[in-house]
Design goal:
The complex is a heterodimer. Chain A is an all-beta fold. Chain A has no helices and ten strands. In chain A, the strands form two sheets. In chain A, strands 1, 3, 4, 8, 9 and 10 form a six-stranded mixed sheet that branches. Chain A has a four-stranded antiparallel sheet with strand order 2-7-6-5, with no helix packed on it. The chains are: A mainly beta, B mainly beta.
Chain lengths: 112, 113
């Protein structure tokens, strides 16, 4: 597959460690946030979402935290595995408008 | 597999030409989105359709146009192609078209020579 975002911020973690990927969003009016994972050569894949009336949501091995005060979103991956290696994008949107804005992405490398 | 299909997978063409990219949304989804992804950029939103009507426009060039047909599939037309149009073009679909999860297709890789 082809690489996306040759100059993306990169996070390198050891297999089994926890990963934290951060995202600063731009619009204080955004009320719905999504994390996507993009593996090489594939389209983005939904991981987890959160609405602005929550500050934490948990999925299977993943947790999203939302801090509206500082417009910050984070994705925590527990017990990171080699298959988690990918580019991770945060996305923001709001129910008053229709545009979804994607962050620049973070590349996660998992070392075996 | 997201359920969103895109054709063709790869497209190689010359500058000045015109191409059409096709997208079929997931069954039941009413909204289709088009994105451009270059090697040095993230996902750039181009345009969104909901049930056949244009709903939102992003950074779409005038040389580009799109439409959504009654069967809800969508086409993105790119004309007067330039070298800088080389990119991955993704289609995504969602049910209600706002504040809901978008499911992405595998993309079309466009190379303009």
């Amino acid at each position: 597959g082809e690489s996306v975002g040759l100059h993306l911020p990169t996070l390198s973690v050891q297999e089994g460690d926890n990963s934290i990927i951060n995202c600063a969003y731009s619009n204080s009016a955004s009320d719905y946030f999504i994390w996507y994972k993009q593996e090489s050569g594939k389209g983005p894949q939904f991981i987890i979402d959160i609405r602005s009336n929550m500050d934490k949501r948990q999925g299977q091995r993943v947790t999203v935290l939302l801090n509206k005060t500082v417009k910050h979103l984070s994705l925590q991956i527990a017990a990171t595995q080699p298959g988690d290696s990918a580019v991770y994008f945060c996305a923001e949107t709001n129910t008053g408008g229709f545009k979804t804005i994607f962050g620049a992405g973070t590349r996660l490398f998992v070392k075996a | 597999d997201s359920g969103v299909t895109q054709t063709p997978k790869h497209l190689i063409t010359a500058t000045g030409q015109r191409v059409t990219l096709r997208c079929s949304p997931r069954s039941g989804d009413l909204s289709v989105y088009w994105y451009q992804q270059s090697l040095d950029q993230g996902l750039q939103f181009l345009i969104q359709y909901y049930n056949g009507e244009e709903r939102a426009k992003g950074n779409i060039l005038e040389r580009f146009s799109a439409q959504q047909f009654p069967d809800l599939h969508s086409e993105l037309n790119l004309s007067s192609l330039e070298l800088g149009d080389s990119a991955l073009y993704f289609c995504a679909s969602s049910f209600q078209g706002f504040a809901d999860t978008q499911y992405f297709g595998p993309g079309t890789r466009l190379t303009v020579l």
